[in-house]
Amino acid sequence: MWTLACGLRTIASKYNACSKHDECVAAVFDGKCSGAGACPPFYVNQQFKSAFEAEVQREIDRYCESGTCSASNLCPELISVEAYCASGHCTWSTIIRGPP
Of 5, 30, 32, 49, which is the most exposed, with the fewest CB atoms less than 10 Å away? Predict the structure, then answer.
């Protein structure tokens, strides 16, 4: 699983350049057996979102076809994340929600 995570971070680094927060958007793709991208999602520059999603989906498809993996949700229920531009790259920041 760490091999896939490393590969996805490398792919994301090609598509996440930013100069302001509103350039960053969450990518949407099928993490399949890996659960990748569910929480936290990958944030990329909105101009490159489609290209990132296509490339990362190919990588996930290849990985899940040849290996076994399992999904894990890294975000507890009381935490959500939002897009954030930091040091010229899209990333995420944590928002802690209070109980209902």
Answer: 5
Domain ranges of the chain: 2-96
Closest of 16, 8, 9 to residue 32, by C-alpha:
8
Query: In degrees rounded to 5, what are phi and psi of residue 45?
Result: -65, 135
- In this prediction the pTM is 0.81
Check: CB of residue 94 under 8 Å from CB of residue 81.
yes
* DSSP H/E element including 26: strand 24-26
Amino acid at 89: H
Total Cβ atoms within 10 A of residue 50: 12
Residue pair 79/98 in contact (Cβ under 8 Å)? The answer is: no
